[in-house]
């Protein structure tokens, strides 16, 4: 069994732990902005392919005490890098955290990354007479170093680019939700695939598209060009192809209930439709340009989930208070029998909805502290 760590958005650790357990992970331990777990190589590939909430899946190589820059160099050289990196493969090092102990302090991520890179390539040069080149953009092997207080954790990044970038969304609007956050919101709503799902502020379609992929059992990793582990020396191409074929075979063809969204901006609806075509659900998910004042429920009951503007990124010049009041009026007057969830980072605007909430779930949209507010509509 190998130690892994899934990095996730702040506040989603417990939810991500549940997802990892469902995928077969063992010794699952939620932490700060991440979840530790154990598993074999098949699980590593499977989590990258199927997990909807993490950003990256790291393979832990070692954790050491570290007092200064020289100490960091020494502990990194204690790792045998030959099984993980050949001189013919490119390398990149990403460093986070800082150490402010004695000697040369590690308080700058670039300097920390440089120390780690030097330790690795110096070991290669001494043992093999050759060394890897650095490619910060698309390396064959990406090394992650995290320093907290006097502890240094060295890992390999198995994901490559962040997993929230599914690869199915070439067209995006202004300030779109990350796909991973959209997936988390859907899970927090408790939506089931036999219920209608509707987003009246759908933008480029992230929430309905994530809902459709969950309902149709479409693995989010199927749309990515590649994962980091595919260029590792020990990459098991046969195992990976088996997992890909199993994922493709598990895909369902028909939704059980309405899934879709609307937006007053017809250009955003065009983007949503383009994205739906790209991930092969254009015949399943419905998008239509409609102003909030004109929307009607697409079914007698279901889950309404939306992320209206709240003044931090877009539409600052708009009377958002009036928009939220209108949203509350529409929910009250037309969506009896539904359950609504509204994500907002502005408490004053939420109050303008004018409905009694049954739950307020704290959640972060990037660095913005938000609330996912639940309304039972009768």
UniProtKB/TrEMBL annotation:
One of its GO terms (molecular function) is rRNA (guanine-N2-)-methyltransferase activity. It holds the Pfam family RlmL_1st. Keywords: Methyltransferase, RNA-binding, Transferase. Residues 43-158 form the THUMP domain. The keyword Methyltransferase applies. It comes from the Bacteria. InterPro entries: RlmKL-like_Mtase (IPR000241), RlmKL-like_Mtase_CS (IPR053943), RlmL_1st (IPR054170), SAM-dependent_MTases_sf (IPR029063), THUMP_dom (IPR004114). CDD domains: THUMP_AdoMetMT (cd11715). This is RNA methyltransferase.
């Amino acid at each position: 069994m190998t130690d892994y760590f899934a990095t996730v958005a702040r506040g989603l650790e417990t939810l991500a732990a549940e997802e990892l357990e469902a995928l077969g992970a063992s010794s699952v331990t939620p932490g700060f902005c991440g979840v530790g777990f154990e598993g074999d190589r098949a699980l590593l590939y499977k989590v990258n392919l199927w997990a909807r909430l993490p950003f990256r899946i790291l393979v832990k190589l070692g954790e050491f005490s570290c007092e200064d820059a020289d100490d960091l160099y020494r502990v990194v050289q204690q790792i045998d890098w030959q099984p993980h990196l050949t001189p013919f493969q490119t390398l990149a090092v990403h460093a986070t955290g800082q150490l402010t102990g004695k000697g040369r302090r590690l308080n700058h991520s670039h300097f920390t990354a440089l120390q780690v890179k030097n330790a690795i390539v110096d070991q290669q040069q001494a043992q093999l007479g050759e060394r890897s080149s650095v490619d910060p953009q698309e390396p064959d092997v990406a090394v992650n170093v995290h320093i907290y207080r006097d502890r240094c954790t060295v890992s390999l990044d198995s994901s490559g680019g962040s997993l929230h970038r599914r690869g199915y969304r070439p067209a995006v609007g202004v300030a779109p939700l990350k796909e991973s956050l959209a997936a988390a919101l859907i899970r927090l709503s408790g939506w089931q695939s036999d219920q209608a799902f509707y987003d009246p502020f759908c933008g480029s379609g992230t929430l309905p598209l994530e809902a459709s992929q969950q309902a149709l059992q479409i693995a989010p990793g199927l749309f990515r060009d590649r994962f980091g582990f595919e260029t590792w020396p020990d990459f098991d191409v046969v195992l990976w192809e088996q997992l890909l074929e199993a994922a493709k075979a598990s895909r369902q063809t028909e939704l059980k209930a309405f899934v879709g969204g609307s937006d007053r901006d017809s250009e955003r609806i065009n983007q949503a439709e383009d994205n739906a075509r790209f991930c092969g659900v254009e015949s399943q998910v419905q998008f239509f340009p409609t102003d909030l004042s004109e929307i009607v429920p697409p079914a007698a009951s279901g889950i309404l989930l939306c992320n209206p503007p709240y003044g931090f990124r877009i539409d600052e010049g708009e009377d958002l208070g009036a928009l939220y009041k209108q949203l509350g009026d529409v929910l009250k007057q037309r969506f009896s029998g539904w359950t609504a969830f509204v994500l907002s980072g502005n408490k004053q605007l939420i109050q303008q909805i004018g409905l009694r909430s049954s739950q307020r779930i704290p959640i972060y949209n990037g660095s913005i502290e938000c609330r996912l507010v639940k309304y039972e509509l009768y």
